[in-house]
Amino acid sequence: MKAVVIGGGIGGLAAGIALHRAGWHVDVLEQAPELEPVGSGLAVAANGLRALDVLGLGDRVRKLSNVEGQVGIRRHDGRWLTHITEDKAQELYGDSVVVMLRATLVELLAEALEPDRLRLGTTVTGVDAATGTVRTGAGELTADLVVAADGIHSPVRAALFPGHPEPVYAGVTTWRGLAARPPGPIRSSESWGRGTVFGVHALDDDLVYYYATDLSPAGAPHGDERAELLRRFGGWHEPIPALLAATEPAHILRNDLYYLREPLPAMHAGRVALLGDAAHPMTPNLGQGACQAIEDAVVLGHLAGGDLAAYTAARLRRTADVVRRSMSICRITKVRNPLAVAVRDGAISLATRFTPDLMLRSMDGILGWRPPASPGSDRASTGPA
Fold it and tell me: Collapsing DSSP states into helix, strand and coil, what is residue 37?
């Protein structure tokens, strides 16, 4: 059986590995001449680590974990609203979360894929879902299965579901950057202000990944991105000002956030399966974009020998729920009215007093996912929907 994967990002590479391990001949097509992943860092939570276990990479990623002490949400002045510890996450789910460079995960996935299976510099110009024909600038490929992992604004998705609404702007823009680690402890946290968010995560003893969001018109020009960040966040608690001061402006990435407000009717059509951002683009508020793409890949590898309707049945409702929940958090962070912000922060603090592990418990259905069971395995074959 032959599969062609369109897109050499995290989801596409993971799909290539999963299908290869299931006995498929796989070609992964990437239009870029080399793998240059967009973004600075990402989070791999317990569910994503279990999915990586299926690909043989879970323990390699776990070794990169640098989460220490409290993890949670703070106010802009640094006061904690809610927090948990890594030990509690380990107790509940058997894993915590690994925050890592996106480039590192892409590199690990690319290494796990057979070298001659990745075709860089290959532009896909069209797909015939009925025959599994993929048209490229270098000719045509025909496959039993085509996996479209071609991103948020997926041309394949638009062709398969021409009447379906495109992803919509979430109303916020995001910055991502890397900075040298300043002196003193670094707590993995998200700080919330009036319509603003700033996240800080130490990657190792030398490097810190940070991200920020604020309300902005789509496509608004900002010029000097570091100056923008200092204007919006320079008065927040440490180490935020120190991180911004230590960052080269050219190393800051900014992107407007989009999500698929209306779920697709299916995650497949004909011989084509949609995966990752091509199937369910979401805001990053739950840190689940990469995790859901890897889950997709693992489930597809398990089910692709049969009807793709089983893939849709296994993934559509779950991913739609994650998209919805992530956007719900995004809306909460977008609140600007001072009174509404005070009510929001007070409600989070009060709820945490009654349920100290509220932040984790609210994610049970996401973090508790288990990979499909292999034949003869005694593992659960399905996870929470």
Answer: coil
